[in-house]
Amino acid sequence: MADKTFRLEVVSPDSELYSGDATFIVAQTTVGELGILAGHSPLLAELAPGGFVKVTEASGNQTAFAVQGGFLSVTGESITVLAEAAQFASEIDVAAERAVLESAEPGSDDYLHAKSRVRAVEAVS
């Protein structure tokens, strides 16, 4: 039976946020939400502003990242999330981000960043 895991790297210009084995990811791209399992066909997609990436690790644990733009690269053996900016959902103050959503102009950078952070927290709640 084929291995059902793949190597996942989540990186931004200033750090490597995650490196490990995963069984499934969900990523919001500019053409819609994608779910990817091991052995997926090669793919390059643009990550949506205000989006998130949710990871199911090989251990079964789930984590998510707020992601502001960038790219998702899928090869036969690995997936790399090359984010313009990214943050672990566990590090986000969701109440503060919801307040920003209420006060920021829809579509502004502040709004999109807050939306991304709220979505990431909700993805693993």
TrEMBL record:
Q: Domain ATP synthase F1 complex delta/epsilon subunit N-terminal spans what residues? A: 6-86
One GO cellular component term: plasma membrane
Q: What residues form the membrane-spanning segments?
A: none
One GO MF term on file is: ATP binding
A family per Pfam: ATP-synt_DE_N
Cellular localisation: Cell membrane
**Which keywords describe this protein according to UniProt?**
ATP synthesis, Cell membrane, CF(1), Hydrogen ion transport, Ion transport, Membrane, Transport
Principal localization reads: membrane
Topology class, membrane? Peripheral membrane protein
Q: What does this protein do?
A: Produces ATP from ADP in the presence of a proton gradient across the membrane.
Q: How does it assemble?
A: F-type ATPases have 2 components, CF(1) - the catalytic core - and CF(0) - the membrane proton channel. CF(1) has five subunits: alpha(3), beta(3), gamma(1), delta(1), epsilon(1). CF(0) has three main subunits: a, b and c.
Which PANTHER family does the UniProt entry name for this protein? ATP SYNTHASE DELTA/EPSILON CHAIN, ATP SYNTHASE EPSILON CHAIN, CHLOROPLASTIC
Concerning its family, UniProt says:
Belongs to the ATPase epsilon chain family.
| Name assigned to this protein | ATP synthase epsilon chain
This chain is encoded by the gene named atpC
